[in-house]
Design brief:
Elements: H1 4-15, H2 21-25, E1 40-41, E2 46-50, E3 60-63, E4 67-70, E5 74-79, E6 87-90, E7 97-104, E8 111-119, E9 124-130, E10 136-142, E11 153-156, E12 166-172, E13 177-181, E14 184-189, E15 205-213, H3 221-227, E16 237-248, E17 254-257, E18 267-270, H4 276-281, H5 289-294, H6 298-353
Helix pairs in contact: 1-3
């Protein structure tokens, strides 16, 4: 007789629009029960994926979020907002086999950490962890997508599921399906106990590792109750997976369905050559430049050295030519500047020898604007009051004419050349300003 709590859970699941929450996660692009589908790529080997780094290209797809990888903790699957449920799904299938996953479950009410096998006909094998339950893990299975809440089992975990990593292993043959917790057998399913083999998982499986919010407010009421309550997205929740060992008991390159029965007898195994997954796993990693250089033969290295030396010589010659050219150009400019300065110096010395006073050529007052030479009335040379030449008062007529050359030309009508350079003025001969 089922317990009262078990009856309550069953009623809640049956009353929801989705009978079992894990079924709602899974889908198939082509169901061989209904139509002819493309073959499934086989693993055809055994391999341990260590998630301290991104798995080999072509082996897993990431969906519904981002998976981060670290050396100490492995793969981190984090729910940090509504709608995020990061999951790794294998690109390969195994047909009867074994998986061993080292996992630390995520906390958080309604948050579900999971290890799931699933096939194209929706056969399924599960490990599940409820964030609100720190002490137990839950096992389950489905055949051909048929929901049956009686398939679930719960198992106490020594030390709890969230405090540390534990080993969750499943082995699967056509004779039996077994679940192991930290190396200890905790459950066995025989085909005859699964609706007389009809619901026994028996078709090629792919592996999924992921986290999702069964307690999301948009989930059906029964799913939220099964998950343990409504999820609060105020803080992030993370599941960690250090490694996943996968073994395919078959050795073909791909698996296909010969009919629509969904039985293991209908599976055809293609042989010959290595599977795509095998090739991806064993693909030689991209080599660094130093590794590629070390592998080159000595003759090739000598050629590279010689070529590099030739290129270096050409570059050096080009730089030297450019340097000399710039140096000559600078020397020419410096010589031209020195010649101009020497010419100006000689002109100034000649001017001084002729009795000229260089200081008398500077205006110490306001700039002279060059008005009419005889217009003193109202200002000097028609200038405004602020434009009076040196030696005059603002707006007042100067006492005598301004003679910057000291030639004695005075008076309002006197002309005022600053410098003269004509045959009649021998004292200024040869001088230039």
């Amino acid at each position: 007789m089922p317990s009262r709590s078990f009856k309550t859970l069953a009623a809640a699941l049956l009353s929801s629009s989705v009978i079992y929450p894990v079924v709602a996660q899974l889908a198939t692009q082509c169901n061989p029960l209904n139509t002819t589908c493309p073959p499934d790529p086989a693993l055809s080997t055994s391999h341990t994926f260590y998630f301290n780094a991104t798995p080999p290209a072509g082996t897993f797809n990431t969906t519904a979020g981002t998976v981060d990888y670290s050396f100490d903790k492995g793969a981190a699957f984090t729910i940090d907002k509504k709608g995020v449920s990061p999951t790794l799904i294998s690109n390969f299938y195994f047909f009867f086999g074994r998986t061993e996953v080292h996992l630390k479950a995520a906390p958080g009410t309604g948050v579900i950490s999971s290890i799931v096998w699933s096939s194209d006909v929706l056969d399924e094998v599960d490990w599940e962890f409820k964030g609100g339950n720190t002490t137990h893990t839950f096992t389950n299975y489905f055949g051909k997508g048929e929901p049956d809440f009686r398939n679930a089992g719960d198992h106490a975990v020594n030390g709890g599921v969230q405090a540390d990593y534990h080993n969750y292993t499943s082995t699967w043959t056509k004779e039996k399906l077994e679940w192991y917790l930290d190396g200890e057998l905790i459950r066995t399913l025989l085909p005859q106990d699964a609706n007389n083999t009809h619901f026994y998982p028996q078709t090629p499986m792919k592996l999924s590792l992921g986290i999702w919010a069964g307690g999301d407010p948009d989930m059906p009421k029964g799913t939220i109750e099964w998950a343990g309550g409504q999820t609060d997205y105020a803080e992030p929740y993370t599941m960690y997976v250090k490694s996943a060992a996968v073994e395919d008991y078959s050795t073909g390159t791909e698996y296909s369905y010969s009919d629509h029965s969904g039985s293991w007898e209908s599976i055809k195994i293609a042989t010959g050559g290595n599977s795509t997954a095998f090739q991806n796993i064993n693909k030689e990693p991209e080599k660094s430049l130093s590794q590629k250089w070390a592998e080159l033969p000595s003759s090739t290295k000598s050629g590279v050295y010689a070529g590099a030396g030739g290129v270096g010589a050409i570059l050096f010659a080009a730089l030297a030519w450019y340097y000399m050219r710039q140096r000559r150009s600078g020397q020419r400019e410096a010589a031209a500047l020195a010649a101009r300065q020497e010419q100006e110096r000689m002109e100034m010395e000649g001017f001084k020898r002729a009795g000229g006073d260089p200081d008398a050529l500077r205006f110490d007052g306001t700039e002279y604007k060059g008005g009419s030479a005889g217009a003193y009335a109202g200002g000097y040379g028609g200038a405004e009051r602020g434009d009076s030449p040196p030696g005059s008062s603002m707006g007042a007529q100067p006492e005598k004419g301004w003679d910057p050359t000291g030639s004695g030309n005075q008076g309002p009508g006197a002309s005022m050349p600053l410098l003269r350079d004509d045959p009649n003025t021998s004292a200024m001969s040869g001088a230039r300003r």
